[in-house]
Amino acid sequence: MSTKLPDGKSMRDGQIFSARLNNVVTTEREFDELVAKSLPELLDRATGQTKRFLRETNQWGDDITHEKLALRWGYELVERFVVFGRTEVPCRPFFLLDSLIAKSFSQPDPLCYHKELLTPVGRFLDGLASRAVVSRDALIALFYHFYGFSQAHVVKLLGFGQAESQRVYKNFERWRQTGWQRTMNETGLSGSEIEVLEQELRTRPDHLNHEVDRLMPVLQSHYRKSEPEHYPCLSEQKWGQLFHDDYGHDYRVWHLAFCRDCFLEVADRRQAEVSSGLKPQVNLHIHPLKKGGVLALFGGDRGGRHHGNTRAQRLSRTSA
Fold this sequence. Notes:
The protein is mostly helical. It is built from 15 helices and two strands. The radius of gyration is 21 Å and the shape is globular.
């Protein structure tokens, strides 16, 4: 069976379901119905991601044994996704599945784990990043926890207008109310471990920030595997064009939060809007920004200029 597209071409049912899996699902019922009709596509994706992981970690053998292993893991991942996904609505099913797979392959398992992320600070960073691939609130919060950016600084860095700016403030508010605590619970960090991090940040901030700076490439090299393939690093010229022409809002949020190199490049380009001229540095914050909190970033924020484009802003479609 096929469906006619506006240009006269036909799309088979499987292709239709695959396209829908990239779109936002808004209700649990819609999620259940779509997943029930799309299990083959979900299994193919989970199996393919598993093969990719095994190849990238030099654990793949081109034989029937490894094919069966990838298929078995694919089934297990889809089963977990079906149960877990209903709690994450609204979401993009393919995007959520990718993030669940990425999180699964970074667990402390003898086959696939990062030893350096098993320290308290490593677990804290890993928890933030793993949540950020399924939650826009957590994604926006990375700019604060990693670099100390307040809501206003995030808006200026990303060049947002009024509509997107309001959404950033809502992201900070929801993260402060429930998101951060939920993430700590999922990560398994105890109150005493968080207090140890807070104490170290008070007594040895340079040492802890240096450790975070060292671990961030390890963290980001893994979680960017769940990044949409059409979000690669951009050249300096293309970043400038993206801001000048005022498009790619999702691109700016997702990519810059997970790519330190591009973040520093864009922050340098937009320093007049963001800061007093000093380059941003890692500035770890454990707890969310308090309500009404205002930060003096990089030696003092002079208010800066808002992005000079006054055209109407489009709302991002990244899931909350």
